[in-house]
Amino acid sequence: MLSLSAVCAGYGSFQVLFGVSLDVPRGQAVGVIGPNGAGKTTLMRVISGLVPIRSGTVTLDGEPIDGLPAHRIVEQGIAHVPEHRRLFPRLSVEENLRIGAFIPRARRGFARQLDRVYGLFPRLKERRQQPAGTLSGGEQQMCAIGRALMSDPKLLLLDEPSAGLAPLVVSQVFELIRRIRGEGLTVLIVEQNVQQVLEVVDRAYLLEVGAVRLAGTADELKGNPFIRRSYMGL
Amino acid sequence: MSGPRASAFVLAAAAAALVSAGPAYFLHLLIQILIWASVYTAWALMGRFGFVSFGHGAFVGVGAYVPALLWNYFGLTPWLGIPAGIALSVLIAVVIGYPCFRLKVVGHYFALVTLALSQVVLLTLVAAREITGGSLGFTPKAAGHSWYALQFPEKTYFYVIALGLWLLALLVWRRIDRGINREALEAISEDEDAAAAIGIDVLREKLRITVISAALTALGGAIYGQYMMYLNPESVSGIAVSLQIVFAAIAGGVYSMLGPTVGALLTISLTEGLRVWFGVTFIGAANTIYGALLVLCIIFMPQGIVGTLRRAIVSRSPKLARAE
Amino acid sequence: MDIFLVEAIINGILLGGVLALLALGLNLIFGVIDVVWIAYADIVMCGMYVIYFLYTQYDVPLLLACLAGIAGMAVFGVAVHLLIIAPVLNSAPINQLLSTGGLLFFLQSFATLLFGTDFRNIGVRLPVVEIASIYISFARLIAFAFGLIGAVALYLFLKRTYIGTAIRAVAQDRDIVGLVGIDQRRIYLATSAIGGALAGLAACLLVLQYDVHPFIGNTFGPVIFMICVLGGLGNMIGGFVASFIISQIIAIGGYYSSTELSYVLAFTLFIILMFVRPRGLFAR
């Protein structure tokens, strides 16, 4: 469904991605792992339109989407849950969810989407009037994912969903990702927590220094000695 | 001072000397350019480090009115009156600056507070109309040619005084530019907290440069008052004067010593030229065009004229580019 | 209590209502776009001239002229953003201050060129109302009422509509709003339009009470700045409350001495309050 081909991108004179190619087939979950500074977040921002690409292509269902501004990419059906959640702190939980349905297509199905999100995250429903900035880390992550789901996307991008969260909360978050995935949503996850993410995805890519170093099914990577040694501490 | 700079100076002084021999009108213009160039340079002492004050009109106004008032009401010689004006300006600068700096009022907040300050000084001058004549203006008592009163009908005397003031401003600029404190100030403008963390006394440095800037500005205002022999709240204080100062300094370029002077040269020549061209037919036309040009200048040349030119020259010359 | 003092207090409250509109507009624009429209008071001045001329020269009914003023200033606000702000949005903040400062200068000069420096009065004589032997100008009451209506309308708009919520979202985190499908540029334009409209509304209310002339912006401009800094730049509620505090100081100060000195008093108190709470009385 999503296809990147030889993508180069960066910030100003500083290049971060050097010819990255990857595919996310429809209905599957794909992970991107790698060390800090490898370019994982830049990769996400390239897909969601926050960072322009220098060369290469990004296509969604065969249609090129590189060069589109971020708000148009949301209309195309890609929702990005950014690193560090980035909720609107003084808006309530429900207002954050509401603004997630800003695009016209999503506004029509607002009530349905809201029910779906509250069904997935009952705790959010309890806290619906609370300012989002006062939620705990785990609740914020749920709210951020919920906000992204409000636009009724066909592809969900998750940037480091476990960042800054306690281990128990991390497990809960990944359980939720499994559930979302189970409902048929295509997911691309960037993660540092290799152990958790490889349990959830079908395929994964290893990104180091802006280039894809390894690719394969989750089982293949789980068994890969280099990965086991360097990223799983085994 | 480097070779090219020194020769530029000599040329400028020579040109000025030539002009001073010319018709009185040009001398009049030159004197104003020199005085305002000093004021703009004084402002740039703060402006170049990112402490953008929109309140320097207050210092010009106080510096101009205090010696004039003391002269008219108490017969006090401007030799004492001018220091009094400078002292009051410095006091105001400290009273406003201290809470602002101590409590990290920067950026937009600082700009707005200082804007309000310059307008308040104007309002005070107008409100005290019993003493200051309000909007009708104030005329110092004429004393003919007098060193005691610091009044000279002959323009050449003021030309020399203005030239001296301008050279003083440049000297102060150079001292700050080459001094130890420059790096401290640049560190502060980069990141105040980091600067404080490495032991820089942020408050003292900021106050120090503010005081120097205010004092020099007040001196410029005083000389202006002595020269013009007529003061009006609108022409030496208020928002318009403060904006003018900021514009000219930035348009000329705050990071170079002669930038503000170039700014003075350009803005005053432009204002005069427009005023002469339009005469009294369309009141406000000159200023309208001036205002429009200012906006366009900011939009198309955010580094100022000197800065933009400099970049253009540097990028064309490989030798200079390597040296930068 | 002296009846005239009571009148002064009441007039202060009524004035505060109009100033609050302008504080809301300035804070909205700052909160969302992160720029201060130094020329905001002069946009009000333009609105006042528009209404004045429509009503006196072209015999447009007053209400219609006011609506035209509001709409016109909304369009003007968008123009200001596109022409004056957007080109310098990504350069140093000083450039934004200067470009709106230049606009101030330009507008005042242009108005002088077009209309001269005469003070013009719209000539609408509204009755003076007497309540318990206190005389209150009806114009002031209307201005206050509509000022409050405008503030409430703004509140409802920001709270209840999608665009209003989007505007609040951009004010809180402008970099990622694209990720929820918000076009940042459109929001900036919408915000500028609202800011302009608020200035237009203030113009309607002020033109009923005061003479218009090119430099009228200089009388209340700095006051608005003080109010916004006192309330915390970008803080809408803070600005709203601060409007009434400052307008009271000016009204009571004006009662005991001249108007100009009351401004000086307000500024002095403002500086003292800055000592106490530098980020504004209600800073986040």
Short description:
Chain A is an alpha/beta fold and 234 residues long.
Using only C-alpha atoms, the radius of gyration of chain A works out to 17 Å
Question: How much β-strand is present in the residues of chain A?
Answer: 25-35%
Task: Tell the overall outline of chain B.
Answer: globular
> Which blocks of ≥5 consecutive residues of chain A have pLDDT under 50?
none
Named CATH topology of the domain at 1-77 and 200-234 in chain A: Rossmann fold
What order do the helices and strands of chain A follow? EEEHEEHEHHHHHEHEHEEHH
Give the topology:
The complex is a heterotrimer of chains A (234), B (324) and C (284).
Chain A: E1 2-11, E2 14-24, E3 29-33, H1 40-48, E4 53-60, E5 63-64, H2 70-76, E6 78-81, H3 93-100, H4 104-108, H5 110-120, H6 122-126, H7 137-149, E7 155-159, H8 167-182, E8 186-191, H9 194-200, E9 203-208, E10 211-217, H10 218-223, H11 225-231
Parallel strand pairs in A: 3-8, 3-9, 6-7, 7-8
Antiparallel strand pairs in A: 1-2, 1-4, 4-5, 9-10
Helix pairs in contact in A: 3-7, 7-8
Chain B: H1 3-20, H2 24-47, H3 56-74, H4 78-102, H5 107-127, H6 129-132, H7 155-178, H8 181-190, H9 192-197, H10 202-228, H11 233-236, H12 239-252, H13 259-278, H14 285-300, H15 304-316, H16 318-323
Helix pairs in contact in B: 2-7, 2-10, 2-12, 2-13, 3-4, 3-5, 3-10, 4-10, 7-10, 12-13, 12-15, 13-14
Chain C: H1 3-33, H2 40-56, H3 62-85, H4 93-115, E1 128-131, E2 134-137, H5 138-160, H6 162-172, H7 184-209, H8 217-231, H9 236-256, H10 259-276
Antiparallel strand pairs in C: 1-2
Helix pairs in contact in C: 1-5, 1-6, 1-7, 1-8, 1-9, 2-3, 2-4, 2-7, 2-8, 3-7, 5-6, 5-7, 6-7, 8-9, 9-10
Describe it for me?
The complex is a heterotrimer of chains A (234), B (324) and C (284). Chain A has a domain at 1-77 and 200-234: Rossmann fold (3-Layer(aba) Sandwich), CATH 3.40.50.300. Chain A has eleven helices and ten strands. Chain A has helices at 40-48, 70-76, 93-100, 104-108, 110-120, 122-126, 137-149, 167-182, 194-200, 218-223, 225-231; strands spanning 2-11, 14-24, 29-33, 53-60, 63-64, 78-81, 155-159, 186-191, 203-208, 211-217. In chain A, the strands form two sheets. In chain A, strands 6-7-8-3-9-10 form a six-stranded mixed beta sheet, with helices on both faces. A four-stranded antiparallel beta sheet of chain A has the order 2-1-4-5, with helices on one face. In chain A, helix 8 (167-182) links the parallel strand 7 (155-159) and strand 8. Chain A is globular, with a radius of gyration of 17 Å. Chain B has 16 helices and no strands. Chain B has a single domain (3-323), classed as Orthogonal Bundle (ABC transporter involved in vitamin B12 uptake, BtuC), CATH 1.10.3470. In chain B, helix 12 packs across helix 13. Chain C is mostly helical. Chain C is built from ten helices and two strands, in the order H-H-H-H-E-E-H-H-H-H-H-H. Chains in contact: A-C, B-C. The A-C interface holds A 48-50, 69-71, 74-75, 79-80, 82, 86, 88-91, 95, 98-100, 102-103, 106-107, 147-148, 151 and C 162, 165-166, 168-169, 172-173, 175-184.
